[in-house]
Write a structure and sequence with these properties.
alpha/beta; 5 helices; 6-stranded mixed sheet; binds 2-acetamido-2-deoxy-beta-D-glucopyranose; 277 residues; 12 strands; 4-stranded mixed sheet
């Protein structure tokens, strides 16, 4: 069992947030989390096979970099990958521009080589991965599935009713890659419909791990977590079975907790569980 989020949540790149409460930073944090997940999979792989080219002093901070033009474009597209969901298929749905496809992430002090799907699959023989988080993370998983499907077509072995939690299996490599739907990482109760329209505030239980995570984490060799965007929603925050405050509740006489407290808490609760192993 490995979990690449570090033992101290404050020092983890995925969880590092500015100390100040600044709501307008949300999008940035969220973007950072999304990028982090994308590169983390590759990073994990390269740290396993020891193939990353470190910069001077052996320092390679994958989270410190910028997007640079990438004229050769992505290694899969809407025609070559059979696993792009219709709702996510921008080109099929008529998006007119394609410039957004021609960028790649460049850490300042090292190079991030493109994923070699063959090598990845061979290294991950008999292994299983879970990506636990929101729909952005699920998109990242589907992208990884597209990259890997060039070597072997996976079989979708599980999906829940809404296709939010899914599991793909690559038979000849005995490799499983799954996503577990846990947009807050911790337990949340909401009566949102599938379009995300809430009838009431979301009730967020910051000291109770999302049950799918808690029930299934032991099945996986690698667990990757990510979240962000959902924390901007209106949420009533519970801890120790009582309401401790709220985020964004204008009409209620509740302490405004901001985003940061629940955002830090969820991964901590998860790490505590994993450290018990
Ligand atoms: C891929 O995108 C092109 C537009 O660039 C579109 O014409 C085509 O139908 C799409 N193919 C699939 C399989 O989605
Ligand atoms: C597949 O991998 C699992 C470990 O994840 C192992 O227990 C099992 O024996 C493997 N199956 C085959 C057919 O090699
Ligand atoms: C809001 O809550 C505070 C402390 O719980 C209380 O003192 C105050 O009277 C409440 N205000 C209203 C309008 O209910």
């Amino acid at each position: 069992m490995a979990m690449d989020v570090g033992s101290d949540s404050d020092s983890s790149p995925l969880l590092s947030l500015p100390k100040k409460k600044e709501n307008n930073c949300t999008i940035v944090k969220f973007a950072v989390a999304a990028i982090a997940v994308g590169v983390l999979a590759i990073f994990l792989f390269f740290s396993v096979v020891g193939n990353s080219k470190n910069g001077e002093g052996g320092q390679c901070n994958l989270f410190n970099g910028r997007w640079i033009p990438h004229p050769s474009g992505p290694s899969y597209n809407n025609g070559s990958c059979n696993f792009i969901d219709d709702a996510d298929n921008c080109l099929k749905n008529g998006r007119p521009n394609t410039e957004y496809l021609y960028w790649r992430w460049k850490p300042y002090h090292c190079d991030l080589p493109p994923l070699d799907p063959e090598k990845f699959m061979n290294t991950m023989q008999d292994k299983s991965w879970a990506l636990i988080g929101d729909s952005i993370l699920r998109n990242q998983m589907m992208s990884m599935i597209c990259l890997l499907s060039k070597v072997e077509e996976p079989v979708e072995v599980y999906h829940d009713e809404a296709y939010k939690s899914r599991s793909f299996y690559f038979p000849s490599h005995n490799l499983t890659i799954a996503t577990i739907w846990a947009p807050f990482l911790v337990k949340s109760v909401t009566d949102e419909d599938d379009d995300g329209k809430a009838k009431n505030e979301i009730q967020l239980y910051v000291d109770v791990l999302e049950k799918e995570w808690e029930a299934n984490y032991h099945k996986y060799d690698f667990v990757l977590i990510s979240g962000g965007q959902w924390f901007t929603k209106t949420t009533v925050v519970w801890e120790n079975n009582q309401v401790i405050g709220c985020h964004n509740c204008r009409e209620k006489n509740l302490t405004e907790l901001g985003l940061e407290y629940p955002y830090r808490k969820g991964p901590r609760v998860g790490l505590q569980l994993h450290q018990q192993i």
